Amino acid sequence: MNMFFDGWTPVVRTLVIGTLSYVALILLLRASGKRTLSKMNAFDFVVTIALGSTLASTLTSQSVSLVQGATALTLLILLQLVSTWLAVRYDWYSQLIKSEPTLLFFQGRYLHDAMKKQRVTQAEILAAMRQHGAAAPEDVDAVIIETEGSLSIIRDGIGSVEEMRRLGVEESGGARSEKGSQRTRRT
């Protein structure tokens, strides 16, 4: 077996299986709808990664046939469909597979207990603020870690923790907070 070229048979196999696998995946994704590749929570992210890994295995491993690869892709998409169907209809299942968004920073205060529980550092929050165009913490009303792990930055419009609760955001009870720099609201 040559490390650089092992004949045309594996190359042709990769081209044929790759094309057919890709077409199968596109058809499955179109049939299953937009939700399949969304990353609304960690479970969705895992399914997206698993689909890519399965496609790669089908393309590169001679021990995985096209039918096996297509079956694995179909199974992952069906499991995603069943899981989201259950989550929409049963709150207990939705709570089992999804976490709640959590408030990490609110009106100039870092909520250290929530940050520790979610394993997010102050530097990561500051980086997210900068990525969203905030020059300083005073420019931000709230930072929330979403169910899939991204940080949402809310710049204006949130006046109280009660409003955050209405939005479904979890507040860390008795959170030890540290005052950021003096809060000034822009008009």
TrEMBL record:
Q: Which domain of life is it from?
A: Bacteria
Q: Where in the cell is it found?
A: Cell membrane
Domain called YetF-like N-terminal transmembrane: residue spans: 20-85
The protein's UniProt keywords, in alphabetical order, are: Cell membrane, Membrane, Transmembrane, Transmembrane helix
| Residue intervals of the YetF C-terminal domain | 90-157
Q: Which InterPro entries match?
A: DUF421, UPF0702_alpha/beta_dom_sf, YetF_N
Query: What name does the UniProt record give this protein?
Result: DUF421 domain-containing protein
